[in-house]
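FW: tagging you since you asked about this chain on Friday. Here's the raw sequence from the shared folder, copied in full. Didn't touch anything.
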Amino acid sequence: MAARIVVLGSLNLDLTVTLPRLPHAGETMLGQRLGTFPGGKGANQAVAAARLGGDVSMVGRVGSDVSGDLLIRNLEANGVNSSGVERDTTEPTGRALILVAEDGQNMIVVVAGANAAVDQMDVQRATAQLRPGDVLVMQLEIPLAAVEQAVAAGRRARAFVLLNAAPARRLEPSLLRQLDGLVLNEQEAGTLADPIRDPADAARALHQAGAKLVAVTLGPKGCILCDEGGARSVEPFKVDAVDTTGAGDAFVGALAFGLASRISPMAAVRLANAAGAAASTSVGAQEALPRPEDLRRLFRLDLSSFGKTA
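HL: got it, structure written out here
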């Protein structure tokens, strides 16, 4: 029986502009299209895991506004339990402004809003329901104090504690030592493992610092996995990228789903690579998150092919 997945994190409304290329500093450009999409790393990762079939609960904050209504309805429409999402009466729902170029690359600015108000009460709602073997997923778009409290509570509950260290920031060694899983991209790995720049060396250093499983995502080059078996490359799934905005969140959500399903770490990371690649084939973060039929269509990949080898 698969474990439950609890996501403590951010919920945003994404305003996405597509344009021929990313602008230079001080440059004004004409955009091609403007789209409004549900987003936020926490919500994206919750939806990513739920679309693959996970038993997922979301804990976080939105404002008492129309945007908050939209985000909660979208969670529920995707099979995510939203009862842990609180309405903040003083801060608006978070926003993200996203520029997407024709080659799929992006620039993102996040205004935290209600996400910045996540506190100990939210942590308690997230961790009170954890059972041994459940997967607790967090990111860094909420206050670090809340993340630290949740990591400690997740450890006490004997859950698998998975942190996506994004946006990039330095973390205390005492926090790294409590992590069962750490996911970060190449730039984030460089920040956290500074001055180490090689992603494989950074993964080794972060594993040696205490994180039991480290995955450094490399975009179209796949990722590096480092655990007790050492650091090794996990091959990418080739696609024509349209928008990479939600690819990292698809990776984290799929990894959480794989770990909750008791497949091996390597198989879970391979599934995460597939989900991240699939998510880059259309515009929008949550809009592009794949379902099992998308993985079958794009890669002839069947979730039942991943053996229960944890």
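FW: The first strand starts at residue 5 and ends at 8.
HL: agreed, and Residues 5-11+40-92+115-305 form a domain with the UDP-N-acetylmuramoyl-L-alanine:D-glutamate ligase fold (CATH 3.40.1190.20).
FW: great, closing this out.
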